[in-house]
Amino acid sequence: MIRARRIGVTAVAALAALAATPQLAQARQPSETGPSTVSFDSGLPPGWRIDGEGATRGLVWRAPRPVPMGDARVEFRAGDRPLGAPRPENDGRTFRLPLDAVGDAPLKDLHVLSGGRRLDAPADGTARRERGALSAAKPPAALPANSVDPGRPGAYRTVTGEYGLAPVKLPGFAEPVEMRAVVVAPRGTTGRRPLALFLHGRHGTCYKPGGDDVTGDWPCPAGTKAIPSHRGYLKDQRLLASQGYVTVSISANGINGQDWQAEDGGAQARSSLVRQHLARWADWAARPRTAPAVVRTAPEADLSRVLLVGHSRGGEGVNRAAMDSLYPPPAAQDGYRGRARWTIRGTVLIGPTVFGQNPVADVPSATILPGCDGDVSDLQGEVYVDGTRGVSRGTALHSAVYVVGANHNFFNSEWTPGLSEAPASDDFWDDAEQPDPVCSAGARTRLTPDRQHQAGATYIAAAARLFVAGDDRVRPLLDGSGRRAPSADPATVLTHAVGARRTAGFLPDGGVKVTGGRLCAAVDPDPAKACLPADTKGSSPHFARWETDREAGRGAVALDWTAPGTATRVRPAAPLSLTGARSLALRLFVPPNTTGTALDVAVTDSAGRRAPLGRVTVDGLPGSERTASYWAREVRVPLTAATRAGLDLRHVKSLELTPRSASGQAWLMDAWGWAPGTPAVRAAALPRVDIGRLTVEEGDSGARTYRVPVRVSGHGSGTVRFSVLDPDTGEAVDRLVAVRPGATAVDVPVEVKGDTRFGYDEGYDLVAKAVRGAVIGSHRGGVTARNDDPAPEVTLTPITDRVSEGGTLTWRIGLSAPAEVEIWQPVRVVAVTEGAELSTRDVDPAWLLDRAGALPDPERPLSEADLWVWTGLPAGATGADFTVVTVADQVAEPVESVRLTLTGDEAEPLPGRPVLTGTVTDAP
Q: pTM score, two decimals?
């Protein structure tokens, strides 16, 4: 699509921190009116179209079957370039993205992703043949049992009940959101008890009893009931309540039904809802008589010891709630008013989304990664671990808990077939013709719903016991120490972690030098730079995509060898201190289903003294083409050899990995000095950055300059990477910026030029990610200029509407005025009402194939060949020709005709528009 822009910005200059206003770039002027050539959208893949009227026109994809409402964001892409997140329609199959979001991107190589999974994969044998290229490995050997098993029920009996309060209004949402929850609490306790709050994820909101219909409506229409997603964690709640915790699981259907319109996917709204409930619990603790009946029967909740548990988008929501409790958000975007009268001790995030890639570094977390997740299938929640490195003090433990064979839904019984009140399904996208060797039902590694939920409950209880109760005996279950909880058997649960008592680490960032291997990029379209090439069978949670097509500051050290013995050396910009560490902990991954990859580990100090530390052996996870199984295992080697060799552990200058396997591949995510224990965590005083969105009217003339609103609050100073996204190419220009409250963090001027030509809303976007000493709330914003000009009228007039066989019938599609964007208009061939109709054999076969994707045989009237053709009128043009190319034959025929008309998006003729006729006679 070609269109002139009315917004200009100097991207590089705009990123100058604390600088004067840069010179504004001049926007390109609209094209002059002139002749054009016809273009057709026959190049769009099946299921795609452009429709809508005027400013509501959009790029539309219709799925071949309903797409269940889930947590991963559906995203349109053109090649590697993200186009945007479309709005789902009520049929569950149609997704619409406004054309203003598309920009000038050529609509080539269109595809649809959700959580890294392609939704519009071609239904041919190619994909099926490629599956199975990775053969499934056996489940990993069972780990030794931990000394303490948090999955065992405690001594307390429990009480269960619900409360419902007046709904609340949240910024940006038209409909109020419910304040409903189910409480499970212990009986027979004394004193105040810690509180665990659960938040479910994005799921269907309403269902019709007795049927299979599920919708995302809110409020629920008459004849339907709300899906009780908040009751899906009763198993987890009962386990925690038996161990002495007050638990509450809150409903968020009102957010699920409206979060498609939120730029952050509803993260801020979910945070607001969580804190609204916590505020009520703080009120009830102060005034018990005002509490609902079920709360009065429960022990008093200790709001100084709160655990938040979130599933999917609920995970991102509780992460934001933890952030907002420490670093308050801008009042205009927050649905909670008042100070935080509670302390979040930790979070548990189950198959979470992380659209903002903005974890809270100073709040401990355990992120459960389901190995067979069919919703958030890229396992982007790994960012809650990787994304905290180097951001703050590093004392908070951040654990990733990989559950082999678990899907996304079965952690919630109300999303599980056979257990749920409403219709439910297995989210793993199975293929009956080619069962997945790891994740299909019946595979050795696939968990049943009961076993999966039991594993989830056990590790939620482990996090509660470590983060809230401070019992360090359960830490080995979460920190990569290689212990298992027998209550979770037979599930295979693997963990790795950062933080806690880890010392300085070898990180694959821009300052490191690598020899014998390759410093690779987590996200980069260049295969020479990317850690995993685009054709890799399967994917890595460590390399989940964000907002840009390439990212600085995220990567790994890649090793690839065909013979043993060649060392890869990693040298940071400055020597590291491993003082106080007992072992060196490495996070390494190898290809799925491989076994026995052996590497010798050595370190060298600043004086050149080298010490071999030992050998590690790494196995790949069970994986297939459809799983994110390139996931790091934590392995450790003791530092005793370095001490015996007299190394100065205060100044370690390099790490050395030497393959001992005959051939193979491996990727090093990082390496740390490790010591046991869980230190007390105190949140640092950090600046918080929020990017807003300014929406302005275009106007009819003149130029106005606006600035992307960037707010810095909080305390202290930090470093943030800001990226300006080019609206035409999607490429990012980024820069590291020092931020502090009260100072101008980044100056992004945007010039909007008024005109009287129709166009689409246009925007210039800015994104941000914390690098060091900062937190990011609203990670994306910008300036959007609204089109305020009406769409031109479209007409269809004959140019040559009578020809002999072999001639070309021509009509002109005209616009009443030029537009500054390409206008697409459909024309439909309809049945003739009198006389003979042109047939599929009367027109040029290439023309028929191009316009309708049809063949001449069997011969049929042209109106039965599904001829509904979209014609593009380029920006600045006022007309384009629509033609029907006929062919001459030797058959005597009567006069034949074809009728056509302008239509709307549903192929229905536009009211008040004529139906025109073209006539074809036999050649003389």
A: 0.87
